[in-house]
Design a protein that fits this description.
heterodimer; A: mainly alpha; 12 helices; about 0% strand; B: alpha/beta; six-stranded mixed β-sheet
Chain lengths: ~240, ~325
């Protein structure tokens, strides 16, 4: 676990010392703020509806941001040749994957923490439940973790960061589209697509302030599967 | 220290290395010599546990690479052809990270980093960002990360690549200073580099070891012997050839140059016969100005080895071997 912590600390430092980290954070905050102003605060709404709309907007931003945050994790190291340092050290591949993933997750959490002022603004003219707010942020965290894990997997496959972003983006979009496919297909296919849907099925309860074990389990499972696949890719690369 | 038996590594259908066999004793400095694409980097990556072999056996300190690569990685310091440096870190932070990653405790890390910086003369750039370092210093920091955890085996892939002449001399001195503390395996296609730094050579061509031994051993096995060059005062080239022909083991004396009051003669000598040759010339009444081994000795051995392989491709050329398993390969066994 010490190796995981070391890798996480170095990776987090790389986010905080690089221009790209701040650019991603700035864009996320700008887009989230604009959407909050344009969509959530427009017209007359109940406070809970404003909060729900904020979480809906943020979920989209979080998925896109996750793809861009995670694209560098392995692809950049492969491009610059630094992956050899980790590969020749007495560190298991799963420790490398987890360390990098946790760094990306903490960085995403820092960005999300910077958005808290928006729901708090609702208190100026309205009233919302802190439980609703907590549920929404738990949802964003789980959705972000799943998207980052998919991004980590994409980055482990790709030679360049651009390719990593494309791979991961395609997987995330495919999982989102599952919800639409579920609506136009019949059983048992629609049940399968519903269960797989990254956003349409599993995020709305969080958005509405409810935390269901089923949804938590789904996001944790996607995260685990993606990280497991990334570890297998890393191990397979040693045999190639 | 290292035992390699029938080591083979395929990339898809292509055999990058095939049936490599060699052993390296503790404390030796071994030069891995080969043209670009010969399989040097692949071999070093397998020994550095970055890649796993397709077939064969590698033991480091008696530990099988396939069974416990983790334990082997603790005993190895690896510098790939491009130093694995994080540009956004300072040298000190980077080396501390590398040390702790290789199992050095947080308490010992500072002392180990200071020691590695001392050895590689990078102490004064401890707080510098790696992105601001020159190529020479980047290479030094690359060596420092490889030895910061005091590994038993140091694997350096082309450590002088891209360095200017002064930096090459500094790197050569650095590697010489590491002799005795670590077993060192370094690769290069710069022949003089290998010749001046290493105890023994492994010559690889098209994924196979075609020769191994000291420079002298390779020369004598090739039947080429060594070459000796002498310079004497006056236009006495012919006389030098006559005198040295009387020394047993000296053949093919030829006058290379006879001008400006000096004569230069080159000859083939089966072993290092410089003392006998010098005595004969001085006793013959000649003024001996210079006597040394032929500068192009290693180059000629290397070219001969690779040329022979190209002329007799059976057993050479990746993926083309017709040798049965276990049969001798290459030129010098």
């Amino acid at each position: 676990m010490k190796s995981t912590f070391l890798i996480m600390r170095r990776e987090l430092g790389a986010y905080l010392r690089s221009m790209s980290g701040y650019v991603i954070a700035a864009i996320v905050l700008l887009v989230d703020g604009l959407l909050f102003n344009a969509l959530a605060l427009s017209g007359e709404k109940l406070s809970s509806e404003v909060l729900s709309q904020f979480f809906f907007n943020s979920s989209g931003v979080v998925m896109v941001a996750s793809v861009f945050i995670s694209m560098r994790l392995f692809a950049e190291e492969r491009q610059t040749g630094t992956l050899v340092l980790l590969a020749s050290s007495p560190v298991h591949d799963w420790e490398i994957v987890i360390g990098k993933f946790l760094a990306a997750l903490i960085f995403l959490m820092l960005i999300m923490a910077a958005t808290v002022f928006m729901p708090l603004l609702i208190f100026v003219n309205g009233k919302i439940s802190l439980g609703h707010m907590a549920a929404g942020y738990i949802g964003l965290l789980l959705l972000g973790a799943a998207s980052l894990a998919i991004g980590t997997f994409g980055s482990s496959l790709a030679r360049t960061q651009v390719l990593a972003a494309i791979f991961s983006g395609c997987i995330v979009v495919a999982l989102i589209v599952c919800w639409m496919l579920a609506k136009v297909t019949e059983a048992p296919l629609n049940d399968m697509f519903t269960a797989l849907a990254l956003h349409g099925r599993h995020f709305p309860p969080f958005q509405a302030g409810a935390v269901h074990l089923r949804d938590v389990g789904y996001y944790l499972m996607v995260t685990y599967m993606a990280l497991f696949s990334a570890t297998r890719v890393m191990e397979a690369r040693r045999w190639r | 220290m290292i035992e390699v038996k029938d080591l083979t590594k395929y990339y898809g259908e292509h055999a990058a290395i095939r049936d490599l066999n060699f052993t390296i004793e503790r404390g030796e400095v071994i030069g891995f010599l080969g043209l670009n694409g010969a399989g040097k980097t692949t071999t070093l990556k397998v020994l550095g546990c970055v890649l796993l072999p397709t077939a064969g056996e590698v033991r480091v300190d008696g530990i099988d690479i396939a069974k416990d690569p983790h334990e082997i990685r603790r005993r190895i310091g690896f510098l790939p052809d491009a130093p694995p440096l994080y540009n956004e870190m300072t040298v000190g932070r980077y080396l501390t990270f590398a040390a702790e990653l290789r199992g050095v405790s947080s308490g010992d890390a500072a002392a180990r980093v200071a020691e590695a910086e001392e050895k590689t003369a990078t102490r004064h750039v401890h707080d510098e960002l790696i992105s601001s370092l020159s190529h020479g210093f980047r290479q030094r920091v690359g060596v420092a990360q490889a030895l910061v955890h005091k590994p038993k085996l140091l694997i350096l892939d082309e450590p002088t690549s891209g360095l200017d002449p002064l930096q090459i001399i500094e790197m050569r001195t650095l590697i010489r200073n590491l002799r005795g503390v670590h077993t060192i395996l370094l690769s290069s296609h710069i022949l003089s580099e290998i010749s001046q730094t290493c105890d023994r050579l492994l010559v690889i061509q098209a994924g196979e070891i075609v020769a191994q031994g000291t420079e002298q051993e390779l020369a004598s096995r090739m039947g080429a012997g060594g070459s000796v060059e002498v310079e004497v005062h006056g236009a006495a080239g012919r006389r030098v050839v006559d005198l040295v022909s009387s020394v047993p083991g000296v053949t093919a004396g030829t006058v290379v140059r006879e001008a400006d009051g000096v004569a230069v003669v080159r000859m083939q000598a089966a072993a290092d016969l410089r003392p006998k040759i010098a005595r004969v010339l001085v006793n013959g009444g000649l003024d001996l100005l210079r006597i040394d081994r032929g500068a192009a000795q290693l180059e000629s051995i290397f070219l001969e080895l690779t040329r022979n392989l190209a002329d007799h491709p059976a057993g050479g050329g990746a993926g083309r071997s017709s040798n049965p398993p276990g049969a001798p390969r290459g030129i010098v066994q």
